[in-house]
Design a protein that fits this description.
By secondary structure, this protein is mainly alpha-helical. The chain is built from 3 helices and no strands.
């Protein structure tokens, strides 16, 4: 988990990270569920999203399916 703290999004995943971030943090909650995050809720969800994205990238790298 300590690796996640100092992790930067790889260059070939930046576009996907930004798109998924927008989708998860703004589009789905607002337009699909009718929710709006508080400041602390936004920070917690951003951290959750970043950890999940980190795990997804590391899993892709481990199986050798890195783009």
């Amino acid at each position: 988990m300590l690796n996640w703290l100092f992790w930067a999004v790889p260059r070939n995943y930046v576009r996907r990270y930004i798109f998924m971030f927008w989708l998860v943090m703004f589009f789905l909650p607002t337009y699909f569920l009718g929710l709006q995050f508080t400041k602390i809720g936004f920070i917690i969800n951003w951290l959750w999203f970043d950890v999940v994205f980190y795990g997804w990238v590391k899993a892709k790298q481990m199986i050798g399916d890195d783009e």
